[in-house]
Amino acid sequence: MMDNEQERRPREKAPKPPREKAPREKKEPRRRERPISASEVFVAADGEESMNDAFRKRLTYLMNGNNALGKAVNIQELADAVGVSRPAIRKYLKPKGAPTTPSAATVCAIARYFGTTPDFLLGFDTPDTEAARKALESDYYNALGLNQRTIDLLRALRERQADERTAEAAAALLGMLDRQTAAFAEDALRLLELKKS
Asked: Are 71 and 61 in contact (CB under 8 A)?
């Protein structure tokens, strides 16, 4: 019976030897630096656009098909290619609140994707007046909701106006297109008003 009693009793564990504590190195307290806003670094003069504005406009211009790829690029395609999220690309294009410019690595990745330079994206290059005109024109057309194919066709028609042989006919066609677009817009507004009531 004694043997059974000894088997039932829990065995006592031998005490562990105390661990030696390694001397800790004193860490320097981390200084929390105040983030610097873009307005403290770059202040646009009167009539001069900020770097964020230049980046937003030029990114839009490139995404509208004015790039080495020769095609329009949507937000998801660009986000996948560059390795950022869709909301980040949206913030670059249409910031809610303070304008957003991506990190230097992201700017370089976007420039590489479109076959351009970071200087172009950030507005540090000497502006090409023709490229600037096309960018502005694309912004106007995009505001109307036109796709890149339509923009390109309208641009080609307008360029025919500069040719002496086709100037008169091109001007007449552009006038006709303008009247038809206005009539279509009026009809569309009427239809929307009818659906409202």
From this structure: no
What are the angstrom distances between the C-alpha of 23 and each of 20, 26, 40, 46, 72? 9, 9, 44, 60, 61
**CATH 1.10.260.40 fits domain 48-127:** yes
Q: Name the DSSP class of 117.
A: -
Query: 150 near 142, Cβ under 8 Å?
Result: no
Cα–Cα dist 24/164, whole Å: 85
pTM above 0.85, yes or no: no
**Predicted confidence (pLDDT) per residue in 94-116, tens digit:** 877 766 778 888 998 998 898 88
Map out the domains of the chain as residue ranges.
48-127
pLDDT per position as a tens digit, 77-95? 999 999 999 998 888 888 7
Rg (the chain; Cα; Å)? 32
